[in-house]
Amino acid sequence: MLTFFEMLAEYDLALDETGSLASRAGDLSLSTPCAGWDLADLFGHMVGQNLGFAAAVAEGDAPVAAYASVPVTAEDLADRWQESATRVREAFGAAAPEATIHLAEFGFRPTVKVALGMQLLDAAIHAWDVATALGRDYRPSEATVIVVLEMARQIAARPGGTPVFAAPLAENGEDSWGDALRLLGRDPERHVEPSH
Predict the structure, then answer these.
(1) Mind listing the GO molecular function terms for this protein (predicted)?
(2) Does residue 56 form part of some domain?
(3) Which residue among 23, 53, 64, 112 sits deepest, i.e. has the most Cβ atoms within 10 Å of its Cβ?
(4) Distance in angstroms between the alpha carbons of the first and the last residue of the chain
(5) 3: number of CA atoms within 13 Å, CB side?
């Protein structure tokens, strides 16, 4: 298992990789693997999550409205992404890993380290969603793959599933990243329409 600061470094990398994808995303009307969402919707969600988590980590709590999707355009996407990524990165970097925070959108109180793991998973999976919409391949570092796969297995094993991701698909055991995607309702072999 990664230490907090190792995980933070992996998260920084995922944020930077998404920033690179954002700079190439000219047509935000492109469909994504997230059912009903185009790239504008997906990036708006991601920016909102960054800002909400940044506020919760920095202050110990944040209202549900802090996580709201932020409208983005092709012209301002790169700047909005960078601003939100900087805020969430700095918030996690300044926080005590074992401090407890309240994530109002999810209704529970994890440690900062657990919240960072949640954001690392979200960043890596949504980077794949964005890359797929752009017709590109995306695979995070192997350290991130290990973390995401472990968390994806825990999510998929929950009774009744989770409203955050689509119903899990079966692992095939051939590739850890592919299995992580499948467990979170995404099929790396074909376009699917999972929940967000």
Answers:
(1) metal ion binding
(2) yes
(3) 53
(4) 26
(5) 4
Handedness of CA 4, 118, 14, 49 (dihedral sign): negative
More confident residue, 165 or 88: 88
- Using CA atoms, how far residue 74 sits from 23, 35, 78, 180, 192, in Å, is 9, 21, 8, 30, 25
d(CA 42, CA 40): 6
| pLDDT score for 192 | 42
H helix and E strand count, the chain: 6, 0
CB 165 within 8 A of CB 179: no
What CATH number does residue 82 fall under? 1.20.120.450
Question: To the nearest whole percent, how much of the chain has pLDDT over 70?
Answer: 94
Alpha-carbon distance of 70 to 25, in angstroms, equals 16
pLDDT tens digits along 137-165: 999 999 999 999 999 999 998 876 666 77
Q: What one-letter code names the amino acid at 164?
A: V
Provide the residue range defining the domain that includes 158: 4-183
